[in-house]
């Protein structure tokens, strides 16, 4: 009798057969290096004033989990992976709108692009670049982009073809109020911008390169978190943190496939209790899924939030790729699915190229780390 491979394992094998742009080949190769290195890379690391600690990660079991999935007579059950539910906070839940689009209903958005398959504030703050540049750009590129800001969207993250992003005008509504503008001060004193999203009362998830900058002295000195920012308006104020988390795969090895981290806010800044926060999910099937992305791009009026939605066009074991338009400043933004009124983040936006923008995929180890960090900020 031939034993069937688990569904998750089959998906990983099939994804390796896809034809990917060259820049994603490293991610695919890393994904098959072996369990021991995976454990080492996904082990968490943290930055606390005067302390350094490491998390231990458990081995990912290869079991046929489908045999243990619950079924019900009430309605068909879709076996899709691990889910952590969203919360709406004291501000309350958004109105329920019946739609099968699985994307946010934002005025001005052209729904037809979902079916397209494209191949192709303050004066000083206005000059700040995405934290991506601190990690991946050479000094000459940084100087050039500072002189010509319009170039930034072609380097860090990319507008693919026509710019279809739509501004969010009511940032006090859910989920927009849970998305945060970040002003980052690196260890060397340089300043950058990014995006994060609330996942718990005091936990903000973002890109690893927003909290740990290899070229700028390591752990970021501080990050100002501004939820629901709308230009010069800060409806919920802001809070500055110096407590961060990431994983060894990023902080020690600078693997782009492990580019994610967290900000733990001070105890007097439990934004999530009032504003709510996103759910998140480790889904087994992502290819072709409609997803949303919203953040704070540097090529738009400073501090304004912009949203876009498209289908996921490529999937690797640790990365998802899409043609959602983004620009520098959106590093760390949530990539989420909307289904039956529930919003679950499936990826953390990190970078892009002309062939597609990409996110760190929420896999089982990423899911477990986010859950741990969420508990720390409870």
Rough shape?
globular
Q: Sheet with the most strands?
A: 9 strands, mixed
Share in β-strands: 25-35%
Q: The CATH topology, please?
A: Thrombin, subunit H
Task: Give the class-level CATH name.
Answer: Mainly Beta
Radius of gyration: 20 Å
In the CATH hierarchy, what is the architecture at level 2?
Answer: Beta Barrel
> How far do the termini sit from each other?
48 Å
Number of helical segments with 4 or more residues: 9
Give helix % range: 10-25%
Name the poorly predicted regions: 5-17, 31-36, 49-79, 117-123, 151-159
N-to-C order of helices and strands? HHHEEEHHEEEEHEEEEEHEHEEEEEEEH
Please give the number of β-strands. Answer: 20
Q: What structural category arises from helix and sheet content?
A: alpha+beta
Mean pLDDT, as a whole number? 75
Number of domains: 1
GO molecular function: serine-type endopeptidase activity
Keywords: Hydrolase, Protease, Serine protease, Signal
Region (Disordered): 1-94
Biased composition (Acidic residues): 23-45, 55-90
